[in-house]
Amino acid sequence: MKPTSRSSRTTRLPLYAASLLLAFTSASAAAGAGAGPFGVTAFTAAQARSARVGALFAADRRDRLRGGHFCTASVVHSPHRNLIVTAAHCLDRRVDELWFVPGYRDGDAPYGVWKVAKWFMAKGWVKGRDEDSDVAFGVVEERSGGEGVEEAVGGNRFATGRATGATAVTVTGYLNSREAPISCTNKPGLQTRTQQRIACPGFRGGTSGSPWVNGDGAVVGVLGGHDGGGATADVSYSVVFGAEAAELYRSIGRELH
C-alpha cells in the first residue's frame, strides 16, 4: 500500500524526535533557523525571513485558525509579488477556497490571512500525478490598497537547475499537530536524477510543501515528490527543480502579464 502523503499524515512524533525538538528550541530561537547543527529539527524562531513560510487553511477555518492547517507553502519572488509555492499533492484535498497565513504561530496571523485566487500545477502532475512533477504555485489576492503578499513578508527566489547538495538547505514547515513551524538544516542528496532527499527528523503530517531554501536564499525544493514526501518522518523528499518547474514558473508570469 502506498504511504499516506505528508499533507494528511497525523501520527504523533516519535519520542526521540519530540525530545530533539524540545532540546534545541532555545538554541534555535537564539541563533535563527538554519544556524544550528546539521540534521537537527527545532522550533523556528519568529523572524522576518521565516515569515515567508506559512500554513494553508480551508475556507471554513478563515476565522478559527488554531488546529486547522494542513500543508505548508512559502512566498517566492515574482513580478507581481503575489506568488506562493507548495507541493501539488497538497491540492488533492482542495476545496473552493484556500487561505495562506505567512508566519502563522499559535492561532495568530501576524501578517494577515491571504486568499489564494488561482493554482498552477506542473503538466506531469495534472496528466498523471507524476511524483516527479509534485510542485504547484498559488496566486495570492492583494490586500485592499493593492499590497501583495511579497510586499508584506518578502519572498525567496525560485531557483531551477541547481546542483543538489552544492550547499546545505533549510527545510521549514508546519506539523498538523503543532502551532508553530519547525526547521532543519542539512545537505540534500540525490535519490534519483529527478528526486532529492534530506535527512531531518520529525517531519510528518502538515509539512508537505515545506520550502528547501539554500545558502543563497533560493527555494530549490519543496517537500513532496517520492512517496508524497517520504514514507518515514526522518527522510524527506523533493522534486529536483528542472526544465518542467522552470517552464511552469515562467508560464505564470506570461499569463499574469
- N-end to C-end Cα span: 44 Å
Number of helices: 4
Q: Measured on Cα atoms, how large is the radius of gyration?
A: 16 Å
- Say which CATH homologous superfamily of the largest domain is assigned: Trypsin-like serine proteases
**Count of discrete structural domains:** 2
What shape does the CA trace take?
globular
Strand percent estimate: 25-35%
What's the SSE pattern?
A: HEEEEEEHEHEEEEEEEEH
Helix coverage percent: 10-25%
Main pleated sheet: 6 strands, mixed
Question: What's the CATH architecture name of the largest domain?
Answer: Beta Barrel
Write the layout of secondary structure elements.
Blueprint lengths: L14 H17 L9 E3 L9 E6 L10 E8 L6 E4 L11 E5 L11 E8 L1 H6 L7 E5 L8 H5 L3 E2 L10 E5 L8 E5 L2 E2 L4 E5 L11 E4 L3 E5 L12 E5 L3 H14 L1
Parallel strand pairs: 8-14
Antiparallel strand pairs: 1-10, 2-3, 2-5, 3-4, 4-7, 5-6, 6-7, 9-10, 9-13, 11-12, 12-15, 13-14
Describe it for me?
It is a single chain. By secondary structure, this protein is α+β, with helices and mostly antiparallel strands. The protein is built from 4 helices and 15 strands. Strands 1-10-9-13-14-8 form a 6-stranded mixed β-sheet. The protein has a 6-stranded antiparallel β-barrel with strand order 2-3-4-7-6-5. A 3-stranded antiparallel β-sheet has the order 11-12-15, with no helix packed on it. A hairpin with a 3-residue loop joins strand 13 and strand 14.
